[in-house]
């Protein structure tokens, strides 16, 4: 039994060592990017049902940044709205500025609230 287990344990140790070495020297290998895509930050998530969510995401940084509203369901992710991220946004770690997406969403909601059944 021991003669069957030793080669398997040796192979397992070799695989762990190889994975560790690749992780350590990944930045030095040619052809592998340091980061696998654009910067992505989830700003807010709202649960609409047991498996449906509405997610606000910031993609990119600086002048190329975009704010996306995504509808997430078990089999799909759909883009519901896209807006350029405001240039005056201070950093990616802060919430949307007052003149950004939240303010535009509030402006869109206000006309719907006015009417005979509006809350007072």
Brief overview:
With 120 residues, this protein is α+β, with helices and mostly antiparallel strands. The protein is built from two helices and four strands.
Task: Count every beta strand, where a strand is a DSSP E run of 2 or more residues.
Answer: 4
Helices and strands, in N-to-C order?
Answer: HEEEEH
Biggest sheet descriptor: 4 strands, antiparallel
> What's the helix count?
2
Class derived from helix and strand content: alpha+beta
The helical percent reads 25-40%
Characterize the structure shown:
This protein is α+β, with helices and mostly antiparallel strands. It folds into two domains: 1-36; 38-115. 30% of the residues lie in helices and 27% in strands. It has two helices and four strands, in the order αββββα. The chain has helices spanning 2-24, 101-113; strands at residues 40-47, 53-59, 66-73, 76-84. It has a four-stranded antiparallel beta sheet, with no helix packed on it. Strand 3 (66-73) and strand 4 form a beta hairpin. The radius of gyration is 24 Å and the shape is elongated. The termini are far apart.
């Amino acid at each position: 039994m021991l003669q069957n287990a030793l080669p398997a344990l040796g192979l397992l140790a070799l695989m762990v060592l190889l994975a560790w070495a690749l992780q350590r020297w990944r930045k030095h290998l040619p052809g592998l990017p340091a980061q696998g895509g654009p910067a992505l930050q989830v700003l807010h998530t709202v649960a609409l049902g047991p498996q449906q969510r509405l997610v606000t995401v910031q993609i990119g940084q600086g002048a190329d940044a975009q704010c996306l509203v995504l509808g997430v369901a078990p089999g799909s992710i759909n883009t519901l709205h896209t807006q350029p991220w405001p240039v005056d946004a201070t950093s990616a770690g802060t919430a949307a500025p007052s003149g950004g997406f939240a303010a535009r969403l509030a402006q869109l909601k206000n006309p719907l609230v006015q009417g005979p059944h509006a809350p007072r």
